């Protein structure tokens, strides 16, 4: 159940980013679906909330918790602003005030949420890789295959950076512009290709950040134990 919800949420992310290309009605219903899945995700992962103030906070845990809390706040702001602007799902509410602010909040929050959710996926990259190996009965990657995977990740990241700059995501995230540009003549496949590359870029960044922090923590722990022995 958890895996299905996570997959559906991941699929919905780029779909939601294409709101003007797919139609505002589809965007609103997809947004409601995303929020319901998000609530379900948190209900099924209640242990995470329960253990929030328990145990040791390593570098990876601090980063992961910060990202998770930011996503939580962004999701709430997206749903609240989305309800205010709604024309298809919640038209009966007839909220007239605050539409301009809601639009700005929705714009900024959506792009930050896309980036941080991708980082969140990357932080769980090791676990995801383990599940894929188990599901497809894959053997542990050889050193040759690992090098190939690193090269593929580097190439994908380069294209992800290009797409991030080309699509102007930084401008939307930093509110340097309040209007999102969509090329309606562009094939939809190209749009999704770019946004999937951007997602991959931040997944990769999250994955390697987790690896580096884990290694750094292991080194610190080793040094601490050596000092204690002395």
TrEMBL record:
This is Uncharacterized protein DUF4405. Keywords: Membrane, Transmembrane, Transmembrane helix. Pfam families: DUF4405. The chain crosses the membrane at residues 7-23, 29-46, 67-89, 109-126, 147-165, 188-210. The keyword Nucleotide-binding does not apply. Residues 67-124 form the Flavinylation-associated cytochrome domain. GO terms for biological process: respiratory electron transport chain. It comes from the Bacteria. GO terms for cellular component: membrane. Coiled coil: none annotated.
